[in-house]
Amino acid sequence: MSTDTQALQAEVDRLRLELKTFHVDAGVEKISIGNYLLTRLAQLDVTSMFGLPGDFNLGFLASPTQRIWSKTTPRSTGSEIADGYARIKEGSIGVLTTTFGVGELSAMNGIAGAFSEMVPVLHIVGVPNTVQQKTRPLLHHTLGDGRYDAYGKAASQFTICQQYLMDTQTAAEKIDHAITECITKVPNFLYHTCGGFAHFDPSRPVRSTSPFLPTSSIEEISSERLKIPLSHDIPFNQPEMEQAVVDLIYGRVKAANGDVVVIVDACVIRHSVRKEVDELLKVTGFPVYATPMGKTAVDESYFRYGGIYIGSLTPPDVKEKVENAKLILSIGSLGSDFNTGNFSWNIPKTRQIEFHSTYTEVNFARFDNIGMKHMLPKLSERLRDFYPPGHRLPVPAFIKQLPEENTPVISHLWFWPRVGYFFRPKDVIITETGTANFGILDVPLPSGAILLNQILWGSIGWSVGSTLGAALAAKDVGMERVILFVGDGSLQLSVQEISPMIRKGLKPIIFVLNNKGYSIERYIHGKYRRVPFVPPFGYNDVANWKWSSLLDTLNDGGKHSTASYTVDNKEELNELLDNEAFAAADNLQLVEVMMDALDAPQTLERQAELTGKGNAYAA
Amino acid sequence: MSTDTQALQAEVDRLRLELKTFHVDAGVEKISIGNYLLTRLAQLDVTSMFGLPGDFNLGFLASPTQRIWSKTTPRSTGSEIADGYARIKEGSIGVLTTTFGVGELSAMNGIAGAFSEMVPVLHIVGVPNTVQQKTRPLLHHTLGDGRYDAYGKAASQFTICQQYLMDTQTAAEKIDHAITECITKVPNFLYHTCGGFAHFDPSRPVRSTSPFLPTSSIEEISSERLKIPLSHDIPFNQPEMEQAVVDLIYGRVKAANGDVVVIVDACVIRHSVRKEVDELLKVTGFPVYATPMGKTAVDESYFRYGGIYIGSLTPPDVKEKVENAKLILSIGSLGSDFNTGNFSWNIPKTRQIEFHSTYTEVNFARFDNIGMKHMLPKLSERLRDFYPPGHRLPVPAFIKQLPEENTPVISHLWFWPRVGYFFRPKDVIITETGTANFGILDVPLPSGAILLNQILWGSIGWSVGSTLGAALAAKDVGMERVILFVGDGSLQLSVQEISPMIRKGLKPIIFVLNNKGYSIERYIHGKYRRVPFVPPFGYNDVANWKWSSLLDTLNDGGKHSTASYTVDNKEELNELLDNEAFAAADNLQLVEVMMDALDAPQTLERQAELTGKGNAYAA
């Protein structure tokens, strides 16, 4: 059977089973609504969920969730932990549980970030019971004006589906619908923008869904539906149209005589088409490049991989190779400012084909509802004979040599290639918005390593919670070390999350780039604001914490083994990175890396200059 | 001239001046929009504003805001700092500046809290420039779908006024309108609820307003309007109707023959009628009681003050005195669950008169647009001859004796009266949601002391940011020590804010009640969840931090003097509180108070029992 036929057969089986439930009239097993939801999560292999206890979710938390429940520390990071978890655990989802008002609103920035970056997060909110929902008394955690729907209305801006569990008749169906929306990434609304280089996947696939869980929803319902697993399947493309598009692309590739490059971007990861892309690359031999958000979508050790394309900020040899190809296949692109060198892709539509989750664009022609997931395998099949011509195009070697510098100071120029040698296969590497996001770009990562970043949403502090979630998920999927690069300013925002990391026995290596403030902002807004800051202190400076005593302070009565290091110069960092015990990551380790406040990766310097101009401040 | 005439004259002057600006046609001084806004804030004596830098607000921050700008650490607490600042500085406002998306959404919980608790907070959001607002490119901090209005739509649920500064023609007017809304507490919408004992001030006065500040708004405008100060005046009552209501109330008081008690609540503080209430009390001699949210609305050392009335949770002697009075004057009430002993006020409408900001209710009769601010002085005048009969009613002495306990363990029963002896006039006392909010209730506070709590919104962690804001404001208004009581669980949520406290040389005393978790939640949801928690740990437990090393870790390179203490028993606490150097509060001090995980103030135990029942969990 072909893949399509298999999928269709599975769908038929599923529908038959679903129909069957309507005929069940006796011997139904009962289950509480809370446990129904938890069973669905277990079926998706959700092994942790996150959030804070609150009196409107205690009933739910007291159910068997205890097994998977992880308390977070600041309220605001629960959504970011769920986000990090979901990014690592493809096919599963991140789950966050909060309480009415105070909890759910605290999570809003992280929820909006998951929405923006298309990460599947399920937000479960414990709300007052169904009677109170109707009588709306002046309870704590309310706005004092009887509006019980205000939080949901606000959340609707950042979620594609909301379900209110108000009765036993519809609860199971609503839960299934919310989770299915979350895992199948069903398009919700279309919205086109028109400025700059804002081409992007307009389907705005799934982000976050919110079944609200009133405290009284421990009532029981039938468990019958649980026998039918929820489906991850997404709609097939219309076959004749899909065939026509494949033919059209084949013609373009043939006309280019194999002078074709591929650019992979964020949506390759988000829409789970890594395998389909790998197959295309394997059969064609086309050179492949990644955007910043697409980094590690393709294995960076792949011999036809040439590194990062980021418009005008691209290294010259790569830039020339990409922009001069006769045809560019752009897969899963997300054209945000920081992902495109401030909208500076220099690739005319006449030489570009775009593959998205819900449409395909061949030069100027748009084909709606022709999604890449189902089409890419057919295209690979069709292009199989392009292997030799596809190989003709040379690819610059993606390597990063350690520069010679005759100063002991740890510069960004030296630091990033140096840590590049430290990475291993199956590392999860997380970079914070700011210097780290840019510094990592031209460091080749080993086979099987995964990079997480949040380049579109760009909420500083995100990486810390995300590291906690990613570290929990990494254990489930066989990834090994988890390595975070975060600036001192960003870490201060969500530093508490290190405490549950310690408590749960997680062992990330946390590199704290101590440059005494927000270097990225110093770069964006005018050099004259960079140095000596006005007393009492400039707005881009932060307090100089004693990072070496942090782990000891946050440790749970000193129960867990941790280690802290401060490295002042290259020699100290070399020594630490070469230390096998350190590299083995057997306990949670924090490394404070002393850097100059005015140093930054070159790509960032140039990006910041462009952003500063865009913001149009007077100098 | 009477007060009314004076106010009218001032209004006439103001209108004349405003008219004059329409005739100015030459020699207009120019000012940037950012500086216009800052000048308005300076006119309101705003000496600090709060938030984090972000690339869409850097242009604004780089303007002379630097003088008043305070960077916060976690993004989520900026709004809570502004809230604390506004609570102390009556007549002024709290100001928060954030950046597009990531910043403003992070502040949403605190903004909603200020809305709920009716605290005037102005939220200034730096957004992409006016050209980008129209072309909507795929910038970082956007949702990736071109919706630039989503954040504003979400915020509209929690703010009474939003202004988008999009051009130079309307910017000044929009700024003035937003700030005026904020300071005059103009009713926005009416919404009636009907469940439980949900009587409350339905005018939902001002909370937060949001002028959005695009990065390009450094353009210049006329400074002419700045000559007219913004008016705090609220509408007068219709004179004949007001007179009729005063007469009616006079009749009721006369019928009660002076057997009258007064209950003051939150809105006495929020609507600035403390002076008017004091005058009423002075001329009548009526006994007065406060609700939890009304505590310190009336000086607690006042000889006719009898303590806290909280429905069925009230101490028996107070309960009897309040509920048996022939007439109860309820001023500025806010009938939320935790403020009323779970809606257990036992006062029939036939014996109650309610005074609110925008209406008055005499038994069952409602008089719209008769607000207490203007009516109370007239009522006091009318009731002047009630002084002797008003004095007849005895008031139980509001004292709290230290109980004899033959254990060294610091119990809540002992702790709260003990710290009562430590308080001084002009202390600002801040209590966190949870045990502290309840423990403080029956401790009499000295003359001129102010208590801050957040009983309606109840967002744990609020008190920490609020302490930072309150401490800055306290310096401006001549208040002295700032004393925070916070549980270890709550402090972990927003602990970073201690860092800017240290950096700014603020000297609060922070009592950390270390009970190893969320005791309030343990009480709300069933005793069996209180002790030995399931491994790896129960959801109401928190990590046991090394509190004694916290200040050292967060200190800015050890530049500032701080002190940390851990007190394990009564003797150690006594010794510390009696230490004059400690009591002088000359540096920032943190006191970890070791308490039993299952101990709580009695009022909390009983409230939690009621809330647990309301939530209707299966036991």
UniProtKB/TrEMBL annotation, chains A, B:
Cofactor stoichiometry and binding remark: Binds 1 Mg(2+) per subunit.
GO cellular-component term (any): nucleus
UniProt keyword list: Decarboxylase, Lyase, Magnesium, Metal-binding, Mitochondrion, Thiamine pyrophosphate
Domain of life per record: Eukaryota
BP GO terms, sorted: aromatic amino acid family catabolic process to alcohol via Ehrlich pathway
Compartments, as annotated in UniProt: Mitochondrion
Assigned protein family: Belongs to the TPP enzyme family.
Thiamine pyrophosphate enzyme central domain: residues covered: 260-364
Pfam family, one: TPP_enzyme_C
Protein name stated in the entry: Pyruvate decarboxylase
Mitochondrion is among the record's keywords: yes
Positions with a binding annotation for Mg(2+): 488, 515, 517
Domain Thiamine pyrophosphate enzyme TPP-binding: 453-577
Keyword Metal-binding belongs to the record: yes
